[in-house]
From TrEMBL:
UniProtKB keywords: CBS domain, Cell membrane, Magnesium, Membrane, Metal-binding, Transmembrane, Transmembrane helix, Transport
Function, as annotated: Acts as a magnesium transporter.
NCBIfam families, sorted: mgtE
Subcellular location per the Swiss-Prot or TrEMBL entry: Cell membrane; Membrane
Record's protein name: Magnesium transporter MgtE
Subunit field text: Homodimer.
Signal peptide: none
SUPFAM superfamilies linked: CBS-domain pair, MgtE membrane domain-like, MgtE N-terminal domain-like
């Protein structure tokens, strides 16, 4: 039977062809390739090209296609692309974006660029964008859209549908309409489906539902998780007096969650998140994303060296103890990392809160003790058979104590981070491993001294 030969994905072929054409400076060929490619493939292509080639390829797109593609790009890539375009091109693209998308882009650009771009906007668009920019970076108001369609409890279904028709080109979404009173306070929501299904003269008050709202000053991640858990298309964003200030759509919520989870995943691995795909990220950015963490962790690792130096006399008397150091610190680090990853995830999805620290500690103590007993029995038995019962007892007791301690530390650290308003991912797995390594060695050598009487 002839084996199947894997064919490259269309976007892979497009990337190869465009890179080859750019290498030969055949811009006509690049233009032809981009003209025939679906918009989603062009977005993926630009995402994978180096910044200079990305700007060249983008400029070869027809104007309308360029606008469509630009809106689909990640804010980080939009920011990189802006540096390769002329002021007139940037101004045109910026004006076509929705206000919330403009803020995403502005957050990726140098502060000196923002005023110039804002000045080029029409007054109405500038005011909408400024309203979103007025919220802190970590507030959900910074990610809401100020373009929405509302209705009133005393309006009929027919009147509400007419309002949708008049604003359909400007609104972020028309599938969920906030219902507000005369003071702009949210009193409910109504879906376009229900409006179309109702009798034309039916009042909105008769068909609207209770509104789930989010506070504009609320932290972004908990707010967007609430939206996704509700399973709604959009939720109204309100101020402290429940007045409507914007709307958060499900696609924006998913976009924010994807970004947050990418950052958490990177920081748990001891690196800063990359703003672009790996192959199109400049080497200097890769270095910058890792070097600071490596320096911090290297300084932390000096604790382990200090501990070993402090117990040098013990190692000289019983050199066999050094054989088990990698096993014990590896087990302790892995146990702490497992606990930290589990609790960080639970914290992110709202299953636990910072005030649950004692409950989490109690659970992780039990989990760590159980793991320690299982590993201790196995490790102690093997060490006894290979060496003697003294070494077996030391290994068994150390694994019990170390697993219990590491699980407790790993479980509590993310909650401590949230309590002091630090990203729990900052207390990443490498940090926990470094801390547990040093303390684990102290536990190990203290138990060894006690058992051996040295």
């Amino acid at each position: 039977m002839t084996p199947e030969i894997a064919t490259p994905a269309p976007v892979d072929t497009l990337v190869d062809d465009v890179e080859q054409a750019l290498g030969h400076r055949d811009l006509a060929a690049v233009s032809g390739l981009l003209a025939d490619a679906p918009a989603r493939h062009v977005v993926q292509l630009l995402d994978r090209l180096p910044p200079r080639q990305c700007a060249i390829a983008y400029r070869l797109l027809p104007k309308q296609r360029a606008l469509e593609v630009f809106e689909e790009l990640a804010p980080e890539l939009q920011g990189d692309l802006v540096h390769g375009l002329q002021d007139a091109e940037i101004a045109a693209l910026f004006a076509e974006l929705d206000p919330d998308d403009r803020v995403w882009l502005l957050d990726e650009l140098p502060a000196s660029v923002a005023p110039r771009l804002l000045r080029g906007l029409p007054v109405h668009e500038r005011d909408l964008t400024a309203a979103v920019l007025g919220y802190p970076r970590d507030a959900i108001g910074r990610r809401m859209s100020p373009e929405y369609v509302t209705t009133h409890p005393e309006f009929t279904a027919a009147q509400s549908i007419e309002r949708v028709r008049s604003r359909i080109d400007d609104a972020e979404t028309v599938y969920t309409l906030p219902v507000t009173d005369g003071s702009r306070r949210v009193v409910g929501v109504v879906s376009l489906r229900d409006l179309l299904r109702a009798a034309p003269d039916a009042l909105v008050a008769e068909i609207m539902e209770d509104a789930h709202t989010v506070d504009a000053d609320a932290d972004t991640e908990p707010a967007v998780r609430e939206v996704t858990e509700l399973g709604v298309l959009a939720v109204p964003v309100v101020d402290s007096e429940r007045r409507l200030v914007g709307i958060l759509t499900i696609d924006d919520a998913v976009r924010i969650l994807t970004r947050e989870e990418r950052e958490d995943s990177a920081r748990q691995g001891g690196v800063e998140p990359l703003s672009r795909p790996y192959l199109s990220t400049p080497i200097r950015r890769l270095v910058r994303s890792r070097v600071v963490w490596l320096l911090v962790l290297a300084l932390g690792a000096t604790l382990t060296v200090q501990v070993l130096e402090g117990f040098e006399s013990t190692l000289e008397k019983v050199t066999m103890l050094a054989l088990f150091v990698p096993l014990l610190i590896g087990t302790g680090g892995n146990t702490g990392n497992q606990a930290a990853t589990t609790v960080t995830r639970a914290l992110a999805v709202g299953e636990v809160r910072a005030r649950d620290v004692w409950r989490v500690l109690a659970r992780e103590l039990q989990v760590g003790l159980s793991l320690g007993l299982l590993l201790g029995l196995l490790g102690g038995a093997v060490a006894t058979l290979v060496y003697d019962w003294h070494i077996g007892l030391i290994i068994a007791l150390t694994l019990v104590a170390l697993c219990t301690f590491a699980a407790s530390v790993g479980g509590v650290k993310p909650l401590a981070a949230r309590a002091i308003r630090v990203d729990p991912a900052v207390f990443s797995n490498p940090f926990i491993s470094t801390f547990v390594d040093a303390t684990g060695l102290i536990i190990y050598f203290l138990i060894a001294r006690t058992v051996l009487g040295i």
